[in-house]
């Protein structure tokens, strides 16, 4: 096979893969992840099921690809927002990343639901999703690490009964951070996605009306929580 023919086949595979994912995302929006069907995707694209299986052998393989794409898209949005304020102080960088997470979620509600909504029955995410899933978390850890090495973090309380778990957390996630900062980071990470999820999934309806300044205030309080100066 000539290099030209191989290149054409590779481009065709990329285009078909993109079309499959796009149709799958449309089905996610209409039906939810639990009802995603390879046969339905093939039917909408005018393909026979056996042809689609050459691209994604199972529904779980397709779900995994969509999940990695969603995490990567979110990570890229957060990293771009951080790069735009890279010369600012830790608090400004922290709030910029948190704000980017919210804006991405509002622009991609179904993909956000796929990665941070209800688990898909019968699906277990493989380790291949971890690098993409970690991008925002690593960005937030980096901001706290820079503050710790530079101006320093505020002293944070750490109950004695939490110390063993906090020490385990920093050993796994950021060995150069104090245990109290590690515990605070994990709590802030969970609260960030809780804030976004409450807004996205309707729990703030008739509770919080002016949501953008509310979110920025909450994100700033999370910066306090992790000890950013």
Task: Summarize it.
With 229 residues, the chain is mainly alpha-helical.
What does this structure look like?
The chain is mostly helical and 229 residues long. It folds into 2 domains: 1-57, Arc Repressor Mutant, subunit A (Orthogonal Bundle); 58-225, Tetracycline Repressor, domain 2, CATH 1.10.357. It contains 11 helices and no strands. It has helices spanning 3-31, 38-45, 49-52, 59-84, 90-107, 109-116, 130-133, 135-149, 163-173, 179-200, 211-225. It comes from Streptomyces longwoodensis. InterPro entries: Homeodomain-like_sf, HTH-type_TetR-like_transc_reg, HTH_TetR, MT1864/Rv1816-like_C, Tet_transcr_reg_TetR-rel_C_sf. Residues 37-56 bind DNA. Keywords: DNA-binding, Transcription, Transcription regulation.
- Low-confidence spans: none
Q: Helix share of residues?
A: 55-70%
Shape: elongated
| Major sheet characteristics | none
CATH architecture annotation name of the largest domain: Orthogonal Bundle
CATH topology of the largest domain: Tetracycline Repressor, domain 2
- Number of distinct helices: 11
Percentage of residues in DSSP E strands: under 5%
Keywords: DNA-binding, Transcription, Transcription regulation
Organism: Streptomyces longwoodensis
GO molecular function: DNA-binding transcription factor activity; transcription cis-regulatory region binding
Protein name: TetR family transcriptional regulator
């Amino acid at each position: 096979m000539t290099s030209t023919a191989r290149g054409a086949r590779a481009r065709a595979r990329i285009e078909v893969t993109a079309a499959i994912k796009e149709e799958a995302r449309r089905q996610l929006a209409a039906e939810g992840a639990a009802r995603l069907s390879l046969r339905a995707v093939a039917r909408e694209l005018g393909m026979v099921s056996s042809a689609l299986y050459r691209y994604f052998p199972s529904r779980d393989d397709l779900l995994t690809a969509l999940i990695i794409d969603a995490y990567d898209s979110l990570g890229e949005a957060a990293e771009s927002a951080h790069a735009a304020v890279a010369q600012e102080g830790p608090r400004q960088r922290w709030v910029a990343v948190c704000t980017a997470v919210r804006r991405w979620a509002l622009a991609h509600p179904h993909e956000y639901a796929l990665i941070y909504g209800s688990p898909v029955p019968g699906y277990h995410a493989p380790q291949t999703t971890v690098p993409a899933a970690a991008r925002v978390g690593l960005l937030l850890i980096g901001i706290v690490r820079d503050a710790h090495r530079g101006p320093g973090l505020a002293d944070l309380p750490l109950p004695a009964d939490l110390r063993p778990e906090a020490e385990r957390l920093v050993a796994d996630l950021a060995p150069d951070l104090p245990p109290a900062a590690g515990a605070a980071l994990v709590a802030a990470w969970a609260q960030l996605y809780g804030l976004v999820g409450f807004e996205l999934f309707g729990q703030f309806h008739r509770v919080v009306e002016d949501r953008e300044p509310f979110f920025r205030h909450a994100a700033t309080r999370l910066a306090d929580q992790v000890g950013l100066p």
